[in-house]
Amino acid sequence: MRKVDPDKYQAKLHQILEAAVVCFAEKGFRGTSTNQICSAAGMSPGNLFHYFPSKQAIIEAIAEEDRREMSERFAQLAAEPDAIVAIERLVNSLLLQCADPVYAKIGVEVVAESMRNPEIATLFAASEAAIKNDLVALLQRGIVQGQIDATLEPKFAATWLIALIDGAVTRSVLDPDFELSTYTPTLMRMIRRFLE
Known about the structure:
196 residues
């Protein structure tokens, strides 16, 4: 039996997921076939199914990858002594992602598909819950350290911060005149005034 090279295997997984994200952003989850993903990834269906048994498995892997990346972001922010600065850094990094049209479109597609497909809704709700819990912990740390307004309810504040980012994603897709770099300073001022 041939030994699998873990680096090559991971590189191939990444290649498939990148191709799938582009296809999903362009045609939606429902409108994308596994053959289209194979074509975009430059591989045969048999090769694709060696890595992922179904389109649903690919979607699950994308959700898991997104959750892992967000966990890494929060872990990096743990070293920032000022909780408001940490939140500003988080928001800035997410806004930079929103500037990528593929990322923005896939974000909107996730919301749309979640309303139609309970499995996708459950999958992405778990990811959202993890992000919200990490953000609540960051807000609580800021309150304890006297950096964030102690009268704020962390769960409510986290929900509104997430809603602001979600709104920026949607706006970047729907409004061709919405230039994130122009609007970001106002958003950052709003967030700082809200939290202080």
